[in-house]
Design goal:
368 residues; five-stranded mixed beta sheet; 17% strand
Length: 368
């Protein structure tokens, strides 16, 4: 990676408006402990810990964490160490929780991972594994937009200035040869920053012509009559790009590697179980969503959303690097130094033990 250069905005400004973050909000609620996650008789504590605190979002792009919680995979791997859970609605609050020690390990998107790492000077987290790819779509009003060229001149929503989908959409706009100011969202395409919770209603009211959004928001828009005009996966090599990865505080990784390894083993086992039992896994994820958020997803939203997400143990490091480059091209970020953001040592140990291929950090691994 090129040498680190100063961000164009001050740290104070970034703190107020995180450069690469999901929709801003406060801390999430503590998730209920799954009644089915019983500690096996004679089990011992992992690394001598009473508990390991795991954070994730209450949405289908965090399917590994949802199912791993609901079916007790994390608890089984941790033995007599209790798996505790906290749910979040956005990246900044989860990064804050990681920094404060409120959680130890988290499932989170690539942009808040980049933001958290760069803002701390590479001192607060490591990405230790992958979880999901895909699940992002451009959904439009078919009466107003019938082809990709028709997007010009329209009002298209993204979740927040500088978040993962916002950067991707700004990059796509530039590749069409159109010009839009990244900060104001004004230009050949008007980019409207809209919280995923309100975007479906805004679309339904006619104030938006479409949205570049993750699941399940994309499928909610389709349920309102929208049409998928573009699946972002088609823009990436092998149709894969990171949407969710696993992070850990560097302090916890250093002090409790056995606990981290146990959680990674559970993640790999969960992904394998989901792939082998897709219908049961989808039901388990929705059950946990209902427990965490108070509302399950209807079938016309859950089914297409579930199909569009690919679970993966591979963090797809090269695509995270590319996403950072897109932010640079959009004028939101000077070239960051992401060297050291990954430490895949324990994940590769788990994968090797299971006879699975190891994964690559794209040259962004931990440095001696």
């Amino acid at each position: 990676m090129p040498a680190t250069t100063a961000l164009r905005r001050t740290v104070a400004v970034l703190a107020a408006l995180p450069l690469l973050a999901l929709a801003a909000c406060g801390y999430g609620s503590q998730a209920e402990k799954d009644d089915g996650a019983k500690v096996a008789a004679g089990a011992e504590k992992t690394d001598g810990l009473d508990s390991v605190r795991i954070g994730y979002f209450g949405n289908v792009t965090h399917a590994t964490a949802l199912v791993g919680n609901q079916k007790g995979f994390f608890q089984k791997a941790l033995g007599a160490t209790e798996a505790k859970y906290a749910t979040f609605n956005a990246g900044p609050s989860e990064i804050e929780a990681l920094n404060s020690g409120s959680i130890d390990i988290g499932w989170i998107g690539p942009s808040p991972s980049i933001n958290g790492y760069t803002k701390s000077g590479g001192k607060n987290l490591r990405i230790i594994g992958g979880s999901a790819s895909g699940g992002v779509k451009l959904v439009v009003n078919p009466d107003k937009i019938k082809s990709l060229k028709d997007v010009k001149g329209k009002r298209i929503a993204t979740p927040q200035l500088g978040n993962t989908q916002d950067v991707a959409f700004l990059n796509w706009i530039a590749e069409q040869g159109w010009k839009t100011d990244a900060q104001s969202g004004k230009g050949d395409v008007t980019v409207v920053r809209s919280d995923n919770k309100v975007t479906p209603d805004a679309y339904k009211s006619g104030s938006l012509d479409g949205a570049w959004v993750p699941e399940p928001t994309a499928s909610k828009l389709v349920a309102e009559g929208g049409k998928v005009l573009l699946d972002e996966s088609t823009l990436w090599p092998n149709k894969k790009f990171v949407i969710t990865n696993i992070i850990v505080s560097q302090k916890f990784l250093t002090e409790h590697p056995k606990a981290v390894e146990a959680v990674l083993k559970a993640s790999v086992d969960t992904n394998a179980w989901i792939k082998a039992n897709p219908d049961e896994a989808k039901a388990a994820a929705n059950k946990q969503l209902e427990k965490d958020t108070g509302k399950a997803l209807p079938a016309d939203v859950l089914d297409p959303a579930w199909k569009s997400i690919q679970l993966t143990d591979d963090p797809l490091a090269a695509t995270l690097d590319a996403q950072a480059e897109h932010a640079v091209k959009a004028g939101l970020l000077d070239q960051p130094d992401l060297g050291g953001i990954y430490d895949l040592t324990l994940l590769n140990k788990v994968l090797k033990a299971k006879g699975k291929p190891t994964v690559d950090d794209a040259g962004l691994g931990r440095r001696p």
